[in-house]
Amino acid sequence: MLQTNEIKVLLVEDDEDDYIIFKDILKEIKNNSYSLTWISSYDKACERVRKNEHDIYFFDYLLGAKTGLDLLQECVESGVDSPIIILTGLGNQQTDLKAMQLGAVDYLVKDDINVEKLERSIRYSIEQNKMLKRLKSSETKFRGIFENSHDVIFLSDKEGRFVDINESAERLFGYSRSELLNMAIADLYENKKECEKYLSQIQQNGHYSSFEIVLLDKSGNKKYCTLTANIQRTDENREVYYQGIIHDLTMRKKAERDIITAEKLAIASKIARTLAHEVRNPLTNINLSVEQLEEDITDEDHKPYFDIIKRNSKRINDLVTELIENSKPAALNEELISVQSILQNTIELAKDRAELKNIKILTDFNVLNKKVVADEASLTIAFLNILINAIEAVQENTGVIKVSSGSEGNKCYISIEDNGHGIEESHRTKIFEPYFTNKPNGMGLGLAASQSIINIHKGRIDFETELTKGTRFLVELSTF
Ligand SMILES: Nc1ncnc2c1ncn2[C@@H]1O[C@H](COP(=O)(O)OP(=O)(O)OP(=O)(O)O)[C@@H](O)[C@H]1O
Ligand SMILES: [Mg+2]
């Protein structure tokens, strides 16, 4: 049943007699009140429909030189969203079909109209219209979730070819939407066998959920993700689609890695301090004993041996002091300092090493007035470790290192890029670990220290590398 509130009806009809008949039939419908507006000309009707004020419209098919279908077209263009019913004198199938195609919800033959038919037509049309509106708003709502989701949401066919995919995919994989719509999910998988497993599992079970998969972006960078997918059948033609969500874990993994490294570093420095402390006690005993012996044995022949013991004890003591100093968590002396001047100081400190290898350090600074709150000495060490690694990675004479910087919003970026040997795949997850080195005289502490310093400054450090081509370290800091 219709609700009892008044339904506003607009009738466009150029024949007054037909209007009167229509009005009388409408009046006879019980349980509802209608307010009928009658318009007899096409032009006035156009003006009126644009206002979109009525709950239902009835258009006569013949309106002078124009037809009800023209008016229908006009309504569609002006965004009228209430139901429209076409009235005509002749039961013409073609007009009927055309009217429906244009968006009319019903079609009534004037000679046939009676109270019951009109009431039913109005009731169905309004109900159907309400349902359509609900459907539209739910479609808008779900489209919104689809488009705004941070996760990648896609629809693919059975072969994994994308049929629809949201904007997050562009951000995550670096392809444009139109490129993605010409691709299949297999193109993103690093391991194609994994992809085959996914396609066969979803086909068998109707759903798929992965722990972790490795996908590649347009530049070949690895993205650690989870994929959950389900089969979706469309009702009309029973076609099968796969609907999936890709969740990016790369940042989480990186954060986890940073925490693990920081913990390892903390444990390593604790061990170093304990060890250093324990070495000092026996060392003091050795020194005391040597002093005692020196007093007792005045023989000149033994003097060089006493000197050797004393020199080496001092050396051990100095090393121990250095170890304790270096493993102490540094107290930061934070100031507002210019990014450019830190970079220039760093390069100055590395200049000798670069000159000895006869390699170039090129600069491209675009951070003239950018300042960061930082401990200048620590930050310089962080950049110096990266720069020294770059110098060590390149060939004599042909090595080129580019130090560049830029800013965006309240962030600045520092990039240190070399054309050296690159980092082997199996080493890539380890280079920030304390004591990881593949250099004969390396300690493996440079990058661990750089990372810890950058993290203390709430910045980020990352790298890209390609074997034999080179490596690029990127540091991001907040500016003030
Ligand atoms: N620019 C680079 N190019 C190639 N490999 C690099 C580069 N930077 C770092 N690495 C790799 O990462 C490892 C760790 O670097 P890190 O600076 O932590 O230690 P290290 O240089 O070996 O020793 P040190 O403690 O003397 O710095 C290096 O041994 C090297 O294998
Ligand atoms: Mg190093």
How would you characterize this protein structure?
The chain has about 475 residues and is an alpha/beta fold. It has 13 helices and 20 strands. The strands form five sheets. Strands 8, 9, 10, 11, 12 and 13 form a six-stranded antiparallel beta sheet that branches. Strands 2-1-3-6-7 form a five-stranded parallel beta sheet, with helices on both faces. The protein has a five-stranded mixed beta sheet with strand order 15-17-18-20-19, covered by helices on one side. The longest helix has about 45 residues. The model has no long low-confidence stretch (mean pLDDT about 90). Bound molecules: adenosine-5'-triphosphate and magnesium ion (MG). The site of adenosine-5'-triphosphate has 22 residues, from α12 and α13. Magnesium ion binds next to α12.
Short key terms for the protein model shown above:
Rossmann fold, 480 residues, binds adenosine-5'-triphosphate, 13 helices, 4 domains, single chain, alpha/beta, Beta-Lactamase, binds magnesium ion, 24% strand, 6-stranded antiparallel sheet
CATH architecture of the largest domain: 2-Layer Sandwich
Present as ligands are:
adenosine-5'-triphosphate, magnesium ion
Mean pLDDT: 88
Major sheet size, sense and barrel closure: 6 strands, antiparallel
Instruction: Output the CATH homologous superfamily of the largest domain.
Output: Histidine kinase-like ATPase, C-terminal domain
- Which fold name is given in CATH as the topology of the largest domain? Heat Shock Protein 90
Q: Treating each run of at least 4 consecutive H or I residues as one helix, how many helices? A: 13
Content of β-strand: 15-25%
> How many domains would you count in the coordinates?
4
Number of strands: 20
Structural class: alpha/beta
Q: Helical proportion?
A: 40-55%
Query: Can you tell me the CATH class of the largest domain?
Result: Alpha Beta
Report the oligomer.
single chain
The first-to-last residue Cα distance is: 66 Å
- Give the uncertain stretches in residue-range form: none
**Rg from Cα:** 39 Å
Cα shape: elongated
